[in-house]
Design goal:
Chain lengths: ~120, ~270
């Protein structure tokens, strides 16, 4: 199923922070990991990933350092303490939003879609 | 220049810090090369794999704007006043004002063009990039939106005003017509962008009047009313008024002052 881009756009930062909560990664690894975990349903558009990473870095939610790997210099990102706090807040917000949307869908009789 | 290098140059064109731009190009290059290797593993030849990887990255112009927005810091507001002060000096020279009058504008011009320590890449390129990025930010940054629309409103108002016969004595112009026309024009132009038009109108009038009064009656302003002078006059007044309106709008948004709230109407 192709997911509407606008839905993904609002969740990209949360997805980045979530993936980095497991281990430090560079951009390419993040893109592959998201695709793997979501079984191909969610993908980062490569061109939008780096601006988001840099914005999160500027906000202090993630930190980066250069590492050499297989002959290439890569910028590896990790979650900061602020980032962990922000991730908890975003996850709580998402749970609340998702629960409310699910509730509306059930109420109007489309609950089978969620079964 | 290889196609990949050219692509990365285009994708980072709006970054005005050369070292930062180079670091980002290195990061994106590593990503593209990793992706190309993966595609080669799926059977594509090297050139096709790289071209496919670049296509998946997306149009460089779109990336350039996203990166600029992530990294660019707004131009100091004083830089936007530089054309105004340059215009005033030019006008003084053109109308043959005494050198003492012309010279008074130079400290303002120097203040407006004094390079910020972040002015990498040259002032003209920085201004061009800044305007390009600011246009994209137009709906999100009250300060910048105020300066751009306020300054533009002022220039238009000055041109219109100079074409209208003066029906009142100068003292009445400054005290009544200028603030009113400034406020109405700003409200009309920015109404769709600002959440509180009533607040903007009031702030436009409130902030324009003192500047119009001080400039109009001070010895700093050449005592002429033809269109270059009036255009520069209104541009300055509106730009400064827009700064105040932009600040007030930020305060209003932060405090949740909406028209409904001001009228005591519940938003529930």
């Amino acid at each position: 199923m192709t997911i509407n881009r606008e839905l993904l756009k609002g969740s990209t930062a949360t997805l980045v922070l979530s993936i980095l909560s497991r281990e430090a990664m560079h951009g390419y690894q993040m893109a592959r990991e998201l695709e793997r975990i979501s079984a191909g349903v969610l993908t980062f558009k490569e061109g939008t990933l780096y601006p988001i990473l840099h914005t999160l870095e500027a906000e202090g939610l993630i930190a980066a350092e250069w590492q050499a790997e297989r002959g290439r210099e890569r910028k590896v990102y990790r979650l900061t303490d602020s980032g962990q706090g922000e991730l908890r807040r975003r996850v709580a917000e998402w749970e609340s939003f998702r629960g409310a949307v699910d509730q509306v869908i059930r109420e109007v009789g489309l609950g089978d879609a969620l079964a | 220049m290889t196609p990949l290098h050219e692509y990365l140059e285009q994708a980072t064109w709006y970054l005005t810090n050369p070292r930062q731009a180079e670091a980002i190009r290195m990061e994106m290059r590593a990503h593209l090369e990793d992706l190309a290797e993966e595609l080669q593993g799926e059977g594509l030849n090297a050139d096709t794999a790289l071209a496919t990887a670049v296509a998946r990255m997306g149009p460089p112009q779109s990336i350039a704007l996203d990166l600029a927005e992530a990294h660019h810091r707004p131009l100091p507001w004083r830089h936007y006043l530089a054309p105004v002060f340059l215009g005033c000096i030019t006008f003084c020279l053109w109308t043959g004002e005494p050198w003492q009058v012309t010279a008074r504008w130079f400290p303002f011009l120097i203040f407006s063009v004094w390079p910020d320590r972040r002015d990498w890449g040259g002032p003209m390129r920085l201004l061009r990039v800044d305007l390009r990025v600011k246009w994209r930010w137009l709906r999100r940054q009250p300060w910048d939106r105020g300066l751009i629309t306020g300054g533009a409103s002022g220039a238009v108002a000055g041109l219109i005003w100079s074409a209208v016969p003066h029906w009142f004595e100068p003292v009445n112009d400054y005290m009544v017509i200028f603030p009113l026309s400034a406020a109405l024009l700003m409200a009309a132009v920015q109404r769709r962008l600002m959440p509180t038009p009533a607040l903007l109108t009031a702030s436009g009038a409130a902030f324009t009047f003192p500047f119009a009064f001080l400039l109009g009656f001070s010895e700093w302003w050449p005592p002429t009313t033809d269109w270059p002078s009036m255009t520069a006059f209104f541009t300055i007044c509106f730009g400064l008024a827009a700064l105040g309106a932009g600040w007030l709008t930020e305060v209003a948004q932060a405090k949740g002052w909406t028209l409904k709230a001001l009228k005591g109407i519940s938003s529930d």
